[in-house]
């Protein structure tokens, strides 16, 4: 597995368990890249859905991917604070073409006051039956959901004070 370089612009590709493409973010700037961690940012980047529809992100986002955690975290900077969108997913891989992961439907939306909602449990159940998610995947995802909720409540990792703001400041140096 390669390592994307700091300042490099990469594509992010999200897949489903059956191997089909789910969503592609065209251009994201790497702020930190190691074997185990990628922190990146984008703003007003084009996103292509599996059905070919496209849209542009509305605000800057800091993206957190880890090679051993079954979730990724997007911190979106809005006028009224930082909102987080957390995807339960496979750990990332980077193959030189794109940063890739499997999206497992379950999501957590976190608000600026650190309250949160678990989203798409019905979609997870449906896709789990349709794509036959193995029991071991379900156990891994449930354990990682618990870890993610712990991080949110303890304000760890990307949820810690100033994490998003500090990485956003770094992102701005690449935009000049």
Automatic annotation (TrEMBL):
EC number, as in UniProt: 3.6.1.15, 3.6.1.6
Q: Which cofactor does it need?
A: Mg(2+)
Origin superkingdom: Bacteria
Which residues does the UniProt record annotate as the domain DUF402?
Answer: 18-156
Residue positions binding Mg(2+) 2: 105, 107, 120, 123
Indicate which residues the UniProt annotation says bind Mg(2+) 1.
87, 103, 107
Q: What class does this enzyme belong to in the EC scheme? A: hydrolase
Mention one GO molecular function: ribonucleoside triphosphate phosphatase activity
* Coiled coil start-end: none
Would the keyword Hydrolase turn up in this protein's UniProt record? yes
Keyword Metal-binding in annotation: yes
Q: Any idea which residues are catalytic in this one?
A: 23 (proton donor)
Record keywords = Hydrolase, Magnesium, Metal-binding
Q: Which reaction does it catalyse?
A: a ribonucleoside 5'-diphosphate + H2O = a ribonucleoside 5'-phosphate + phosphate + H(+); a ribonucleoside 5'-triphosphate + H2O = a ribonucleoside 5'-diphosphate + phosphate + H(+)
Family the entry assigns: Belongs to the Ntdp family.
Say what the protein does. Answer: Has nucleoside phosphatase activity towards nucleoside triphosphates and nucleoside diphosphates.
UniProt-recorded name of the protein: Nucleoside triphosphate/diphosphate phosphatase
